[in-house]
Recover the amino acids of this structure.
């Protein structure tokens, strides 16, 4: 499983807005500059996030984006699944694509368990956790500048 730039950027944007912790709207241009993401690409991500109800969007002068819930109410899993469509490690678990061999597949239970582990892990981490660095084993990870 590889998380695309769309998924990583969606998570970065949600963290950016949570860090600003403001009831006011943050212009897209400011977010793009802080995150070093092209405005055009970021706009497509923001559209997905706002249509799904993760963000409030206000167009025009004084407009921009803001979180509409506390950071504790957003899981990393929900953000990544929204941006990526799926986090399934194999195509046969990718929403409705039934494999003709699934009844005889000896490795399917392993893939199902891995899929559950991935989902459980990402659903257990909130945006608030990331802001506080309270995820298990974060302290043991080397710093990452390009995530």
């Amino acid at each position: 499983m590889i998380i695309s730039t769309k998924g990583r950027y969606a998570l970065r944007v949600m963290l950016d807005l949570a860090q600003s912790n403001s009831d006011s709207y943050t212009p897209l241009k400011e977010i793009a500059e802080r995150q070093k993401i092209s405005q055009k690409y970021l706009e497509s991500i923001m559209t997905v996030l706002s249509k799904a109800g993760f963000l409030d969007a206000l167009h025009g002068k004084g407009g921009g984006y803001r979180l509409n819930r506390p950071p504790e109410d957003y899981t990393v899993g929900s953000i990544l699944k929204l941006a990526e469509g799926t986090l399934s490690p194999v195509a046969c678990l990718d929403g409705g694509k039934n494999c003709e061999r699934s009844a005889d597949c000896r490795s399917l239970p392993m893939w199902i368990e891995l899929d559950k582990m991935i989902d459980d892990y990402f659903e257990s981490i909130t945006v608030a956790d990331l802001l506080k660095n309270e995820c298990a084993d974060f302290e043991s990870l080397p710093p990452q500048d390009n995530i």
